[in-house]
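Exercise (ungraded).
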Amino acid sequence: MSDGVKLEQMGVPTVTVCSTAFAGAARSQAAGRGMDDLPVVEIPHPMHSASQQAVTERAEKAIAHLAAALTERKAAVASATAVRLPEVLALDADPTALEEYFFDHGWTDGLPITPPTRAAVDAMLAHTARDRNETLGPIPPRMRIVSLEKIAINAVMAGCKPEYFPVVLAAVEAVLDENCRLYGIQTATNNTTPLIIINGPAIERLGFNAAGNVFGAGNRANASVGRALQLVLRNLGGDVPGETDMATHGQSGKFTFCIAENEADSPWPPFHVERGFAATDSTVTVIGASPAHNLFTYGCETGAEILDHFIGGLTALGHNNVIFPTGPLLVIGPEHAGVLARDGIDKAAIRKAVFERARIPLSRFAARTVRGLHHRRSRWFELFPNADHIGVADDAAHVSIVVAGGAGIHSQFVPTSFSYHPVTRVVKFK
Amino acid sequence: MSTMNILNPTIHDDTQRIPLAPQLAALRNARIAFVDNSKVNADIFLGRVKALLGEKYGAVTGNTVRKLAPKDDLTAADLKLLGDYDAVIQGFGD
């Protein structure tokens, strides 16, 4: 829809073809860019699995509508605008009534929130030296420009302590980086959502969990910082399930998806140091990610055996790093990291092994998928013109490795997508 | 009923409306380009549309720009190429 708006602004009338399941979302995205009347011609859903004959017939049925959209443009009718609510709402102070108001207006993720009073929001903003009226954005898919105050309001709602706010700000700025590809993440049918990875002194300073249950529940910093970002994306970016967020299944990371690296128990340099930051920098890294897939190395004694299991977990069909060139993320448990390091296998060796060995024979895919891979993973086929296989990364350096978790013989393969690469921002404490 | 003052967590959409480009006077002899977002079957769909625009409407059909990935923006070079046409048909969202 972004392209359609740009072309129209250039004076080129443009028609977008969209299946019925996504036409509403398409129109909402166009409205966010100022063109709620951008022509959309609807075709039956689904198209992906339709036969060639059906696709051709649908083109024949659509042609008259396409022609009309270019030659019979109606004068724009002002669409009904939502009621403008005041910036300060005087609500029934009864806790239940207050929560129901937020639920009724679609301002939560399905869970209760902490009421964003002026005092609570001011306390949040007191932890940044930046002006509350400073703006960030545009936040897709509705492309809104938002003030730091609005971000602080959502951070309060998420249950953040005020001292977490610099981390929340860094996370918002990171996802807005062009390389995170937030628009794609937020509007896809894929289950991708930004994963936040914390490094540096902020972990201990703010009490982030990097150990047992690092992806799970129970830690306020992990839970609320991840939730704050998601509420920002919903309430300020306008990414609403069924309206603009068209994920087929979604994932629980859309409640919260925030981990810290277990730098204390890692035998290797931290993730942010590898990415060029000082160990003393507190950083936030974001990347489009799916839920983690467990890598359970039952019976493995050596680093080589553990690595074999990692490679095996990466060579299934259907995960996002087959289609997307982002490069997979491995979250390695400390016990695995210890055995790998003991046996002389460091992060560089793991990356090399993943690049060289995590390859799937093209014979395992249908012909149409192979044609699609040649297009979507064109860089791979430039590197290996006669390849009869597809790897999960175009370069060993694209494999991201973080050590996190507690006791146990488990690591996590986190499929990544949309983002060109991880995006890191320094957390600026006041 | 006692009340509590709460700050609004949302933003009112004040997006300024941008007018559409003027419609084509006719499709006959109009130069039309296409954008294939690389979704499966988009090439087949647009290919048939292209043929029909020529056969039934007398349009002059031109380039098809094929994106590497559906969510990628058109490049500056793509926009420059498409800007030389009278109209564009892009597809598809699926």
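Further reading is listed at the end of the chapter. For now, observe: Chain A touches chain B through 98 residues (CB under 8 Å). The CA atoms of residues 322 and 345 of chain A lie 25 Å apart.
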